[in-house]
Design goal:
Helix 1 packs antiparallel against helix 2 and helix 2 (28-48) crosses helix 3 (56-66). This protein is mostly helical. 60% of the residues lie in helices and 10% in strands. The radius of gyration is 16 Å and the shape is globular. Strand 2 (70-75) and strand 3 form a beta hairpin. The protein has one domain (6-125): Winged helix-like DNA-binding domain superfamily/Winged helix DNA-binding domain (Arc Repressor Mutant, subunit A). A 3-stranded antiparallel β-sheet has the order 1-3-2.
């Protein structure tokens, strides 16, 4: 059995967030509506690592912005409006690399007949990850 690695989940959460910006800029509240379950799982991952359960979404968005993968579209914090994040060019490149990597992994598993039929059906039925 593979040992649980919380860092793997954090990377998947970053990929999930980046993919949410592929359709255009989004506010933090729009991201929160879409990420509640993933954020809950990240809290569990943090607990497994013995870290405090912090508000994962704002922290991760700030990290992605600091690393150059997201940029601020606009910020009107003085008037109470939300920060709007958009995918930066480096973020678009990382997202494309991650998608290619993940698609390659799934393809390899399918070629090696390591995915059971129910999971294949699940993958075939998947619609858009993010609502418009």
């Amino acid at each position: 059995m593979t040992e649980f690695n919380a860092n793997d989940f954090e990377g998947a959460f970053e990929f999930l967030l980046l993919s949410g910006f592929s359709a255009g800029p989004r506010s933090m509240s729009a991201m929160q509506r879409c990420c509640k379950r993933a954020e809950w799982l990240l809290g569990l991952a943090a607990a497994r690592k013995g870290r405090p359960n912090i508000d994962a979404l704002p922290v991760t968005l700030q990290k992605l912005q600091r690393e150059g993968w997201l940029r601020w579209e606009r910020s009107d914090e003085q008037s109470g409006a939300e920060i709007i994040y958009a995918l930066a060019e480096a973020g678009q490149q990382r997202l494309e690399q991650e998608r290619a990597y993940r698609n390659g992994m799934v393809s390899q598993l399918m070629e090696n007949n390591e995915l059971d039929q129910s999971f294949r059906q699940f993958l075939d039925r998947q619609g858009p990850l993010w609502p418009s």
